[in-house]
Amino acid sequence: MKSSSARGQRLDPVDSDQFTETGTETEGLPRRDREILGFERQWWKYAGAKEQAIRELFDMSATRYYQVLNGLIDRPDALAFDPMLVKRLRRLRASRQRQRSARRLGIELER
Q1: Alpha-carbon gap, residue 26 to 32, rounded angstroms
Q2: Is 55 within 8 Å of 99 (Cβ atoms)?
């Protein structure tokens, strides 16, 4: 196992091909947005590791990253770029919003 990054491998922000390998047309979707979507395809065992990688790769706080991601998944060009990922991220967001609303209202949701 290599050491250096939070996941055990060094992720190089210059090598964006590691995040943008899809067969779809990428016109209209800026490079940073493609890299963010590619980054979201990865699975993280620990939230802290992902947040550290966000700071290293995108030079932004985790809060800002999630604000950018939230806006990105609402865009039609992001949906065209990676439909399965964007739909999954939208479902996760909607689920979290329902859970937050239920907590505020004191309602228990069925799982």
Answers
A1: 12
A2: no
- Residue-number span of the structural domain to which 96 is assigned: 26-105
> For residue 14, is it within any domain?
no
Q: Are 91 and 102 spatial neighbours (Cβ–Cβ below 8 Å)?
A: no
Distance CA 5, CA 52 (A): 8
Closest to 37 in 3D by CA, of 24, 49, 52 = 24
> Torsion over CA of 51, 54, 55 and 61, rounded to 10 degrees?
-70
pTM: 0.72
Q: How far apart, in whole angstroms, are the C-alpha atoms of residue 88 and residue 85?
A: 5
Does residue 99 lie within any of the structural domains?
A: yes
Residues 48-86: tens digit of each pLDDT:
899 999 999 999 999 999 999 999 999 999 999 999 999
Q: How many CB atoms lie within 10 A of CB 90?
A: 14
Token look-up 């859970």 returns 99
